[in-house]
Design brief:
mainly alpha
Amino acid sequence: MKKGEATRSRILEEVERQAAVRGLFSVSLNEAAEGVGLSKSGLFKHFDSKEAMQEAVLLHATDRFMAFVWAPAVELPPGRARLEKVFDQWLDWGEVENAAGGCLIMTASVELDDQPGPLRDLLHGRLQIWGKMLTKEMRAMRDPPLSDDEARAAVFQMKSFILGHTEAGRLMGDKNAREAARSAFRGLLDRTAQQPS
């Protein structure tokens, strides 16, 4: 990696870390520059504006998420095996990969939900793609496949278990949060795999 690319990557990682705690709009260019030992003018060598930096950080965070959560599951058979791996990786994403400050994607989802504009559109688009990928995996849980509505409902529950795990583990300090989430998810997969009577 060239020096300029390495510096840009360090900036993205630092802004992602700060924004996961305080929100994208709360991270100033000065704070971003100071976090990696640059001047503000040095930061502008990598980003034309604060908005460009915010967009790059969201892309970086969602790419990192996909590499961490999805990539390890790709070689597994579609359906249950892949979904179980994704779910465990997703729990690790919150517990291990983002243990210090939380998940920027989750923070940005709350911050941007009522803020029309390019950042919201970018996150919305990325989350739509993720939802479609999960829906496809849920459909593969059964033969014949689940309907789109059934699969989307199951994905909604899957995401709810992730959010519940985050609240229980991070906010409430529940040491059993992971096992509770995994147990709930296994139950969901068991129900989803059953053929309708």
